[in-house]
Amino acid sequence: VSDGRAGPRAWVEIPPDSPFPIHNLPFGVGRRPDGTVGAFVAVGDHALDVDRGRSLLTGTAGEDGLLDATQKLNSFAAQGRRAHRAVRDRVGEVLTDPSRRDEVLPFLVPIEELTMTVPVTVGDYVDFYSSLHHATNLGRLFRPGGEPLLPNWRHLPVGYHGRSGTIVGDRSTIARPRGIRSVSGSPAAGPTTQLDIESEVGFVVGSGSIHGQRVPCAEAERHLFGVCLVNDWSARDIQAFEYQPLGPFLGKSFATSMSPWIVTLDALDPFRIAPPIQEPPVADYLTTTGPTGFDLHLEVFLQSASMRERGLDPILISAAGFADMYWTPAQQIAHMTVNGAHLRPGDLFASGTVSGPTPGSEGSLIELTSRGERPISLPDGSTRAFLDDGDTVVLRGWAGSDPADRIGLGSVSGTIGGSPDTGGLDTAPHDTAHHDTAHHHGRER
Ligand code: CA
User: Any residues with CB less than 8 A from the CB of 257 and at least 6 apart, and which?
Assistant: First the structure.
């Protein structure tokens, strides 16, 4: 019932370790047991059905329902932060006013009864590369002996356009992707043998901006609907062979997982912090003042199929802080729009892998295992350099260092499926000398 902060208490019971205390109230889209879809606000182990319960939201943007014709939150996101705040404030009021209890209870459902979906139709998806530690670690692994950071890295938030159509929700099965990778020094097609994760924070765009007009840093956060978790699944062997000179492509575009609950910036306001000092100084359009960073914390858990069969819990393989991310979401928005490209409601951009400076704080397996040189031991006796079929990866995140005062971002999981048989792919292209590739696959898998 209580959480760590002052203010009215909810009359609905909220477990003390819940990611969704009364001060959070994130938005999501869930499928009800009857198969219909609704917009929900999470509170403790429950979710308030704010579509069927729209009578509770009169006088706010929610009185006509939060979902658009696509049954996503895009049109609500588009209405901007004032509208989001009014709905969230109202939900907070009805959940803390005991006299509203009988009116609200019919719309309060156990979260576990819902199947959460991707909350927005993602238009454009951009993935940044904003962790100094991650960029340094990966630079060392991909370009050994060279300067780990490329010359542009401290001057702009490096990023690439990802594939929005393959953004998937919580508890998805991730098919092992195929592509061209180097096998014993020769290019060959087949399933990746270096399937990896990237633990990231995602930012969902609320109100859009105008094509041709840049969004300054100082106005950037007005365009944010909220924050989620992102797992940027990555096939390292495919990525390594294809990425130069135009950047990530098929090694990243097969699937990206997004957590179901969008936590608003209002909820994260108490967890603002000053970002790291940038040296050398950045361009004027990237200059920010004030606390534009966020004190977020991320964890990654791994569970093999045999661990699951034996009832063994997922193990923690990474814990990292977001506070020292070099580039902030405000700077990322300013950079994405400096050329006149605009933001649209429901666009998603992600931080890039969140890695810390110490062992065990790296947000990807390629870093955690030094590209397989230091495999992770699992309680079922097996080891992992990269992911096996049947492995489940769970990302979890929250804001705040005091456990009594946390705001959760929730979690997102995905399980590796096999590689669907797409006949004829497992041959080396235009090179009959490598007719033994299928044998290589068998050995490498
Ligand atoms: Ca990434």
Answer: 167, 168, 169, 170, 172, 174, 230, 231, 233, 395, 412, 413, 414
CA of 5 to the centre of ligand 1 (A): 34
Q: Which two tokens stand for residue 230?
A: 């992102």
**What is the pLDDT at residue 5?**
67
Contacts of 195 (CB under 8 A, 6+ apart): 176, 177, 233, 234, 235, 236, 386, 387, 416
Q: Ligand 1 centroid vs 332 CA: distance in angstroms?
A: 14
Amino acid, res. 418? G
- Provide the H-helix boundaries in 132-284: 132-142, 217-220, 236-242, 265-268
Euclidean distance between CA atoms 330 and 292, whole angstroms: 7
Gap from CA of 333 to ligand 1 centroid (Å)? 17
Q: How far apart are CA 261 and CA 425, in angstroms?
A: 38
The yes-or-no verdict on residue 435 having pLDDT over 70 is no
Tell me how far the alpha carbon of residue 325 lies from the centroid of ligand 1, in angstroms.
14
Whether the CB-CB separation of 241 and 187 falls below 8 Å is answered with: yes
Å from CA of 231 to ligand 1 middle: 8
Instruction: Mention every residue, 6+ apart, whose C-beta is less than 8 A from residue 189.
Output: 178, 179, 180, 425, 426, 427, 428, 429, 437
Chain-wide mean pLDDT for the chain? 93
Query: In this structure, what token pair is assigned to residue 9?
Result: 């208490």
How is residue 414 written in tokens?
A: 């995905």
> Each residue of 258-308: pLDDT tens digit?
999 999 999 999 999 999 999 999 999 999 999 999 999 999 999 999 999
* 393 phi and psi angles, rounded to 5 deg: -115, 130
440 is catalytic: no
- In angstroms, what is the span from residue 89 Cα to ligand 1's centroid? 34
Residue in 133, 134, 335, 342 annotated catalytic = 134
Task: Please write the tens of the pLDDT for every residue from 124-182.
Answer: 999 999 999 999 999 998 888 999 999 999 999 999 999 999 999 999 999 999 999 99
Query: Is the pLDDT score of 441 beyond 80?
Result: no
